[in-house]
Structure formats: structure tokens, C-alpha cells
Amino acid sequence: MNHSEFIQQQREMAGAIQQGYSLEKVCSHFKRNKETIRLACVKYRVVFPRKVPPGAKKDRVVYVIRIVAALLKDNPCPSDIGREFNVSRQYVHQIKKQMVKAGLL
Q1: How far is CA 40 from CA 30, 32, 85, 90, 100, in A?
Q2: CB atoms closer than 10 angstroms to residue 101
Q3: DSSP-derived secondary structure for 53-105
């Protein structure tokens, strides 16, 4: 396989991930390891899939709602909220920034 064929295969691998094919299926089809596919996704700016446990999105929404509620109380420090919910202060600050942008704070 020459360089141009490899580049084309990288595009195809990233495209397959973007279309929603599972990482295992793409690995099997292209006979490449996960790291090679991850690098192709990075190169072509495709979000590399992460395994999310069932219900994780629901849990995340609940966390965000709880953080929003905490931010609405007396304007506390993001570090304190982060410690309370076991998330980083940066994450709390991102939520706060989105709330300000939406006009909620």
C-alpha cells in the first residue's frame, strides 16, 4: 500500500466512524487497530467514539440540572460546586457561561 492509498483509507476509516459504525466493526473491516483509527479520526476531525455506559447521558443531564440549581443559589464559587458534585471547576464554569449566554444568570 502506497502513501496515497493509505491516506484514502484513513479518510474512509474516519468516514465510517462519522457515519456511526462501531469501532470494532471498522477495525475488523479495515484490518487496523483502534489507535490507527483514532489517529485517522483526529486527522479528519471526527469525534472518536467513547463507550458510554447505559444511562450515562441521563445521569449527565441530572448532574447538569443539579449544578444549574446550585449556581442559581446565592452565586456560589465554581470550585465549591465542583467539589460538591465531584466535577472540575472548569466544567462548572462552562455551564455558568452557557447560562449567562442564555440569559439565565
Answers
A1: 12, 11, 35, 29, 36
A2: 9
A3: -TTHHHHHHHHHHHHHHHHHTT---HHHHHHHHTS-HHHHHHHHHHHHHTT--
DSSP state of 13: H
Phi/psi-derived region of residue 31, left when phi > 0, alpha when psi is between -120 and 50, beta in every other case? left
Whole-Å CA distances, 96 to 9, 69, 74, 78, 105 = 42, 11, 13, 9, 8
Hunting for cell 444549574 — which residue is that? 68
11: three-class secondary structure by DSSP: helix
pTM: 0.48
- Give 15-30 pLDDT, tens digit per residue: 999 888 888 899 999 9
